[in-house]
Amino acid sequence: MKNKSEVVPGTWTVTAILLLMATVNGVDSLPASAADRVFLRSPSGFGESRVVGDVEEFTGDDLVLRHPSGRLQRFKSERVLRIESDWSAPHQLARASFHRRKYQDALVNYLKAWRIEKRKWVQRQQLAKITWCYRNLGQLGQSSASFLALYRSDATTFHFSAIPLIWSGRPPDVSVEMRAATLLEDAKQPAGQLIGASWLLTTAKRPQAL
Fold first, then answer.
1. Residue 3: is its pLDDT beyond 70?
2. Which of 139, 209, 137 lies closest to 180, judged by CA?
3. Which of 4, 15, 53, 192 is an S-S bond match for 183, by CB 3.0 to 4.6 Å?
4. Do the Cβ atoms of 148 and 192 come closer than 8 Å?
5. Are 80 and 39 in contact (CB under 8 A)?
6. Read out DSSP for 100-135?
7. At 75, is the secondary structure helix, strand, or coil?
8. Can you tell me the distance from the alpha carbon of 192 to that of 51, in angstroms, rounded to the nearest whole number?
9. What is this structure's pTM?
């Protein structure tokens, strides 16, 4: 079904989430979308235009479109207003639940949609929503795992606002503090260090966090 626009209970562990992510190209994957419709802001900033084809890639830098002729064309991401494409049934259910702030239901269906989705650019959108679901459900470990999976896939992501930072409030529980300390020590993962530092600001590790 074509639709305009664009699981797992809270007890799932970070390891389980990453194992799920590793199965994305399994036998139950959906076929790639056909005839995406990309709406672009005009170069002047006024008005919009539409191009039709298959979105091959969409990062924080560029969108790459394959025209029906096979020709590839690249557009700067800041020009992209919206994309109309074919979304799976779980994706549509998840989006509807998210808009109603039913984050557990949205999480279940976004994870289902993510698992059967073949398009990497759509998976990134789903990972951003999965991160927001975990954040709204108060599941910090899972939110950090899903965000960092997104960030590793596209360090230029325009979904960076999903990053689960906590600048104030009560000190985290022991398991979250341990996870934060691990993230803080990983110099190869600066986004993870930022997450860990924000979680540790209200703990005895505040000096290292700062």
1. no
2. 209
3. 192
4. yes
5. yes
6. TT-HHHHHHHHHHHHHH---HHHHHHHHHHHHHHHH
7. strand
8. 37
9. 0.81
**Could you tell me the two tokens for 45?**
């900033």
Distance linking the first and last C-alpha atoms of the chain? 49
Mean pLDDT of 30-59: 85
Tokens of 117: 């989705």
Instruction: Determine the distance from the C-alpha atom of residue 186 to the mean position of all C-alpha atoms in its chain, rounded to a whole number.
Output: 21
Q: Which two tokens stand for residue 56?
A: 């091959």
Q: Number of H helices and number of E strands within the chain?
A: 8, 6
- Single-letter residue type at 103: Y
Spatial contact of 107 and 8, defined as CB atoms under 8 Å apart = yes
Q: Is 37 helix (H, G, I), strand (E, B) or coil?
A: strand
Q: Which two tokens stand for residue 58?
A: 């969409």
